[in-house]
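Case study: Purine nucleoside phosphorylase.
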Amino acid sequence: MSKNAEALARQVRDLAGAEPVEVGLVLGSGLGHLAETVDGVSIPYDQLDGFPQAHVSGHNPKLVIGQLEGTRVAVFGGRSHYYENGKADAMRLPLELLKELGADRLILTNAAGSMRLDIPPGELMLISDHINFSGLNPLIGEASDERFVPMGGAYDADMQSAFSAIAKDEGITLTPGIYAWYSGPSFETPAEIRAIRTLGADAVGMSTVPEVILARFLGLRVAAFSTITNMAQGLSDEAISHEHTKAMAPLGAEKLEKLVRRYLTRD
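Here is what the predicted structure looks like once written out:
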C-alpha cells in the first residue's frame, strides 16, 4: 500500500472515526444522491491530499464515510475518468484508501449504452464480465509481480448471486451482461459499435473496467452494474449526448438503489 493511502486513511479516520469500512461504492451518473442518505461524514475530494478530482457534471465529488442500512460504507460520489487526464490508473489512490480503511468488497455503478434490444433505457445490467476495448491498463508501470492479475473471476460470483436473488425478490429485472470499456470522451461511431457487438459486448461505457482491474490487484471483491441510459449509436434514432445520459440515468438509479440497500441490509 502506498504511503499516500496510509496518510489519507489517517486523515479520514480522524474525521470519520476508526471503525473499519466494510463495503465501498463508486457512484456513476444519476446515483450521486445515494451518498446523501449515508449517516456519517462527508469529505470533499479537494480536502484529501493527492486525491483525483472528478470534473464530470452529474457527479458529486466527495467521499462519505458512515452507516447505510446498518453497514459501514465508504461512498465515492464520483470518479476520475481516463478521458479527463489520460491516466488509466486515476482511481488507484481512492481504491488503495478504501482497502486501507478495511473494506473487502466494492460495488461499482455506471451509466452505459445498450447493444441489446432486451436491455432498453431505464433497465439495469449486472456486469458478469468485461472487454477492455480501449486496450489501456491501470497497472502499466507497476513494478511488482502482483501486476499480473488473473481476471477470470473479476466479478465476484457470490455477490452476483446475492444481487440476482434480491432483484428476483423485489421484482426488478436484472440482466447479466458483458460491458465494454471505451476510452471516451467522444461517443462511439456506428462502426465501432458493430465491432464491439461482434466481440460479444452487451453494453458500452467510459469507466469501471480500470477500477475492476485495480480492485482485483488490491484483493477487493467486486460487483458492478450499468444503468442503461440509451441504445448504442446506430441502434436507435435517439440523439446521444451527455445531457441525455444525465436525464435518463435516474430511471434505473431508483431500482439500483433498492438493490444496494437490500444487499447492505444482509450484512
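For the exam, be able to explain this: Helices lie at 3-16, 33-36, 82-85, 92-100, 157-170, 190-199, 209-218, 242-266.
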